[in-house]
């Protein structure tokens, strides 16, 4: 039975990853399918700051080496239909103010509606793809597309109401939010703060001060190091190979953490908790209101246990001293040391050693 359950978990994990990648691909990369409407060279401008604002399109900023510095503009109809250059020019002239300018090594690319109301079917999706030097900061805003950032070192601030975020190889302050898509962040460092109200979050290979919050999807955490806060109100939490300190929780799913070597606090209101510790940090706190707790800890670690549940397994730990009954355990292992607190209000606790 356990083999079948593990296979199901792997299948769900794969489907979740593919779903996030597909959604962000649709929102963020659709503009790359056709020749740019406009290309402007930035080769002689020494860009170190990019500011973009558009109401119905995606934004990509890349500091990848080997690319000529430039800004590309992609335009199509809001309904996804390709338009002739003449039709685009007509709609731009009638309904939009588009400005692309450079001032003091700062690129400004803005699109503004000339009218308070524009017929959506007659509107334009105006997206930007920008290549700049690696040492570039950004301030990006769109209400109708995804945002992609890669290979940048600086202060990156960005938001979208209608698409996903895809971030890779960023170093510095990374502050982003979306109300309508998932987030995938990888190989980023320093100070990371990301929020979404409408999708899951996948974080891999990051380190530093990390904050990840979603109201509408699951969390997948892998190979993270630092001080990490990750919370969801609408899905489960999966994590592996995390070092440093992790605080995580969910109001709507289970928590599954493996190969952990960190201080850990995890809680859920609607699911079980399964934790496998490779090495202990400064503390371990687990809480669930409606599920079981399965905990695996290092055999030779000194611990102070405080456990409470409907039933606690009688897998007696080596060198345990204290009281151990069906519902409560209080005592020390290997002479005491790191505090371990676990609460399962309506479930069982099973403690094992590795």
3D architecture notes:
The structure is a single chain. The chain is mostly beta strands and 354 residues long. It contains two helices and 23 strands. It has helices at residues 2-28, 85-95, and strands at 38-41, 49-54, 59-62, 70-77, 96-103, 106-113, 124-131, 137-142, 147-160, 165-178, 183-186, 189-196, 201-204, 207-214, 219-232, 237-250, 255-268, 273-288, 293-297, 303-312, 320-324, 328-333, 338-353. It has a 23-stranded mixed sheet that branches. A hairpin with a 2-residue loop joins strand 5 and strand 6 (106-113). The longest helix has 27 residues, at 2-28. The model is unreliable at 1-32 (pLDDT under 50).
Continuous helix count = 2
Query: In terms of per-residue confidence, which ranges show pLDDT below 50 for 5 or more consecutive residues?
Result: 1-32
| Main sheet specs | 23 strands, mixed
Instruction: Work out the helicity level.
Output: 10-25%
Characteristic terms for this protein:
single chain, 23-stranded mixed β-sheet, mainly beta, 23 strands, elongated
In short:
By secondary structure, the chain is mainly beta.
């Amino acid at each position: 039975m356990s083999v079948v359950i593990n296979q199901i978990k792997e299948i769900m994990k794969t489907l979740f990853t593919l779903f996030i990648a597909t959604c962000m691909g649709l929102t963020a990369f659709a503009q790359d399918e056709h020749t740019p409407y406009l290309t402007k060279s930035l080769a002689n401008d020494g860009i170190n700051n990019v500011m973009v604002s558009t109401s119905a399109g995606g934004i990509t900023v890349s500091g990848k080496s080997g690319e000529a510095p430039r800004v590309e503009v992609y335009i199509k109809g809001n309904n996804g239909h390709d338009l002739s250059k003449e039709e685009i020019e007509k709609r731009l002239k009638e309904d939009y103010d588009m400005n692309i300018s450079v001032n003091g090594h700062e690129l400004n690319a803005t699109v503004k509606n000339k009218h308070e109301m524009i017929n959506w079917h007659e509107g334009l999706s105006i997206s930007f793809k920008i290549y700049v030097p690696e040492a570039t900061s950004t301030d990006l805003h769109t209400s109708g597309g995804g945002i992609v950032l890669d290979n940048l070192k600086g202060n990156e601030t960005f938001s979208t109401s209608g698409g996903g975020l895809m971030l890779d190889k960023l170093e510095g302050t990374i502050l982003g939010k979306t109300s309508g898509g998932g987030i995938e962040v990888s190989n980023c460092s320093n100070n990371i703060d990301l929020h979404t109200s409408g999708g899951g979050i996948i974080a891999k290979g990051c380190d530093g001060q990390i904050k990840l919050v979603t109201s509408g999807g699951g969390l997948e955490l892998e190979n993270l190091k630092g001080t990490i806060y990750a919370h969801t109100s609408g899905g489960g939490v999966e994590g592996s190979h995390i070092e440093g300190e992790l605080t995580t929780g969910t109001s709507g799913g289970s928590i599954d953490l493996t190969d952990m070597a960190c201080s850990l606090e995890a809680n859920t209101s609607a699911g079980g908790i399964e934790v496998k510790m490779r090495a202990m940090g400064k503390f371990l706190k687990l809480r669930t209101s409606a599920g079981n707790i399965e905990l695996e800890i290092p055999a030779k670690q000194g611990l102070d246990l405080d456990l409470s549940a409907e039933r606690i397994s009688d897998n007696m730990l080596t060198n345990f001293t204290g009281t151990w009954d069906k519902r409560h355990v209080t005592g020390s292992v290997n002479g005491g040391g790191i505090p371990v607190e676990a609460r399962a209000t309506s479930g069982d606790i099973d403690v094992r050693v590795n």
